[in-house]
Amino acid sequence: MSFDQDVRSAADVILSSNSVTVISHIDADGISSESILSQAISRAGIPARSVYLRQLDPLTLHEIPDDESLKIFSDFGSGQQSMLQEKGLSPDDIVIIDHHVSQPADISYLEVNCLLHGYEKMSAAGVAYLVAREMDDINRDLAKLAIVGNIGDMMDRENLKLTGPAHEILADGVGYGNVEVWEHDLNIYGISTRPLPNALAYSDDIDIPGVSQVPDGARIFLEKIGIKPLSGTRWPVWETLPFEDKQAVVCAVIDQMLAFGKNLDRLFADHYLFPDENQAQATLRNASEYATLLNSCGRWKRPELGGKICRGDRVVAFREAEQMLRNHRSKIREVMEYITDTGVSELSHLLYIHVGDRFPDTIVGIGAGMSLSRLNPEKPILIMCEDSLDPTKTKISMRTRQEVVDKGVDLQKALSTACERFDGSSGGGHRIAAGAFIPHDAEREFIEEVNHILRQQYAQKSPDSC
Ligand SMILES: [Mn+2]
Fold it and tell me: What pTM does this model have?
């Protein structure tokens, strides 16, 4: 079946059901997928309830209700079909909405997965939206949430913009009027809330000598071109900076980078803004920051709070989520500081560190990703921590940069291949970021196996691998 036919079938199955349980992942993509689906289902007059899972595995399987409702798995399920089969779920009970690598089972479940049709740059929220739109055209307002999910899963990072079917969804949001695209804009994070010097200093993609990683340097850099704090020490944010000032910043950044022979390839990216969000909730005014807010809710075990925000709660849930975001940021900073202070160990093709039980296992991967620019940027980082749910397991997270992926590295493949050699381990994710759970006593061997696989990946780089 074609992707469109899969979307149609899922819409039909959902519309003919009596009640639905949406079982979704806890990250920004999972939370936005869940709220797109639940809202579309409720609008169709079908009762819907939601279950969020940190991951779909034997330990969380019991959280799937044993009732008559149709079960929709979103942002996972494709890779766990044999497990769903073992649980005794029949094809009539299930719809899978996913974008991860699929593992076929003997039973053929209805699986709407863009990856199966060659669309690599779309997330589960994108698939969920296409199903919701197929259910009823009134769901076009939900394109905005699909953008949040796609950005949360970094679907724009390789091309610095959304492409393929995710780009088409963008057009729905623009047409509806709650999405605005700023094409080919400065590639920085935090355009709606971050003081400009910090946004310039802490943008992973662009390396501006004297500015990157040095907020004081960034302030001096901006003052030199006449950009000053608005009042006292409060700096403007990129979103509200006057056009002439933006031009001045871009020119100065280009001059500085060229003067030091830096590559400008990743200087510009598309930004996705939400004009319907109030300035008082600036965190929700662009897709990246909105996604960060949802991620922090999920990582701190409050995914339902993110779901409420996706449904429009701008008072109670939003305030609470902002508090979580502050906590989230400070904990990630602690992970980064721990990594920098402790130092990482180095093998030929990766860096690694074990953080034990010092930090919640839900944020160590993010912290590792954010410390990459302070470490050897050529090597992926592998971070280990204790699994909070199962003390016999170690949780592994790996992160790298787009430039390394372009050289042929695929962390998802590296971890899932390594897992095949160790009983009781499982892994998944994406080329640029992946994770695994392995037996606690296999750590050493596992790291060496991953290093070995990475060495092969660098060696085997072929033109179609990126
Ligand atoms: Mn996802």
Answer: 0.88
Q: How far is the CA of 128 from the centre of ligand 1 (A)?
A: 11
Residues 189 and 221 in one domain: yes
Range of the domain at 353: 343-465
On whether both 88 and 39 belong to a single domain, the answer is: yes
Look at residues 131, 162, 177 and tell me which one is the last residue of a structural domain. 177
Q: Ligand 1 centre from 176 Cα, in Å?
A: 24
CA–centroid distance, 30 to ligand 1, in Å, is: 6
Distance 154 CA to ligand 1 centre (A): 9
CATH number of the structural domain spanning residue 349: 3.10.310.40
Cα of 208 to ligand 1 centre, how many Å? 31
For residue 52, the CA-to-ligand 1 centroid distance in Å is: 13
CB 14 within 8 A of CB 46: yes
Residue 143 shares a structural domain with residue 118: yes
Question: Which residues have CB under 8 Å from 435's CB, separation 6+?
Answer: 365, 395, 396, 397, 398, 415, 427, 428, 429
Neighbours of 387 (CB within 10 A): 18
Q: Are residues 324 and 188 in the same domain?
A: yes
pLDDT tens, N- to C-terminus, the chain (466 residues): 899 999 999 999 999 999 999 999 999 999 999 999 999 999 999 999 999 998 898 889 999 999 999 999 999 999 999 999 999 999 999 999 999 989 878 888 999 999 999 999 999 999 999 999 999 999 999 999 999 999 999 999 889 999 999 999 999 999 999 999 999 999 999 999 999 999 999 887 888 999 998 899 999 999 999 999 998 889 999 999 999 999 999 999 999 999 999 999 999 999 999 999 999 999 999 999 999 999 999 988 999 999 999 999 999 999 999 999 999 899 999 999 999 999 999 999 999 999 999 998 888 998 998 898 888 888 999 999 998 888 899 999 999 988 899 899 999 999 999 999 998 888 888 888 999 999 999 999 999 999 999 999 999 875 443 3
Q: What is the distance in A from the centroid of ligand 1 to the CA of 298?
A: 13
